Predict the structure.
Amino acid sequence: MGDVIEFVPRFSLTDRQRKLLRIHAWVCADMAYDDVEERGDDPVDTVRWWYLLNRLPECTFADLCRGSH
C-alpha cells in the first residue's frame, strides 16, 4: 500500500483554544444549516443576506470553477 507517513503536529492548542475552535466550527455549521433550511436550492448570490454561504468565494457555489458561464 505504500509508506505510511506519521503525522507530527507543528503546534499544539491549549484546552481553551480547542474549545473556542470547536464552538466556532459548531456556529459555522449551524449557520450553514440555517442557510439551507431557509433558502433551500436557491442559488447563492451576494445581493441577498445569507448567514454564511455568501461569505465563501464565488467559485464555491457557482459554475465559475468549471469554466461555464
Remarks:
- The first helix runs from residue 15 to 39.
